[in-house]
Fold this protein.
Amino acid sequence: MSVQVTKVRTWQYTAGAATAGLALTAVVVTAAGPWDSSGQRTAERDRAAALEHTGGADHDRDSGTTEAAPEPAPSAASVLTGLGGAGSTVKSAPTGPALADVLGPLLKDAALGSSRAAEVVDIATGKRLYGTGGGTALTPASTTKIATAVAALSAMGADHRLTTRADLEPDTQELVLVGGGDPTLTARKDAEGSASLRDLATKAAEALKKDGVRKVTLSYDTTLYAGSGIHPIGADNANLAPVSALMADEGRTDDSTSGTAVRAENPAQDAARKFAGFLEEAGIKTTSPGPSKATDRGKTLAEVSSPPLSALVERMLTNSDNDIAEALARQTAVAAKVRADFAGGGEAIRAQLKKLELPVSGASFKDGSGLNREDRLTADLLTALLVKAGDPAHPELRPVLTGLPVAGFTGTLSTRYTNGAAGVVRAKTGTLTGVNTLAGTVVDQGGRLLAFAFLASDTTSKDAAQSALDRTATALAACGCR
């Protein structure tokens, strides 16, 4: 047994192992599509070109958030060698005892609290390489979103879109704005690829004027979802808007697109009022909007659809977007034909994961975002989710891997690992008071793509716990461990 932990500089991680990571990830997620010969998705390539980057893909976030942030990682070579293929330099998977020698002492750091669990799995084979407390259910925080993503993609497919429409009731001249559960519907002038509330109003106004209608009774329909939209953490919460089937810009009252923000108290009413204003601009007078329900007799005048579910999942994971997460939990409930509330969403997620034959023993989903402290997941389940996302038999799950934040570059990891395994670790973070988690993928020094999950509870310092988790993931990336 040979344990080799190589101290590698950030630029060496970025230019060396990150390239191997891009190559391996391209092999694993080839079916995510659309892909070009460099292993990058076409959309990422186009964005990189637009931003005049020289390499690497940036999931719509500015990588240069700190002076120490690394430059974009170089893209993989145009011709990629498959795992185990001729000419492959990928070594065999690390051994359990060697991983234990490296990870064991790091996981004993007092900063990780009194309850902790860890697991490392080889993605190519699904074999567990290392584990401690892997079957113990702990509070997962935002790593819950990995489970939400897998369940939603499995239930609806990567190409599924969420549609918002405007229906006209023929007898009453009531125009109903029908929410389809798209939290990314935007009222901003530049929709940036999202469904546009302005466009919906323009199309509806054109249809109304064509029929000689210049004034309507305006209402809105949020009945796709059930129950209270207020998360158990409370209504006055900058992390999440009240969950509603109709909202614009996640109910944000500022120009932000991610992170915390003051939210509208009634996102559906707020969106309907903005829709009324756009109709007025287009020459259609309206009443003050109120809640209603569209009927089967209504005629759909116009509709707009979200980006595909694959894109919503990536945005959710990269930015740890709670609004999208709760929407996808309810959409999974709708697909399963169960009550689309917090409880129904959790029930649907668990049922969908069970269908995939994932180890759901001990798992409990009280929401889709991980904000609920009563959520419970195991390290076994988190790594199994990541392995399933890389399974060639499930190409619809690839966005779970491609949406993970890239250390030192994107999303919630953009300011972390600037002096560590930047570009090599891709992981979903999780943070609540006293809870710190990290789950994702890493390319080790042998070029092997590994899935890992680290969960810590009863921590006393968020920063100290995050640093301990980052050191552990960095050690995994630097370890020869054979």
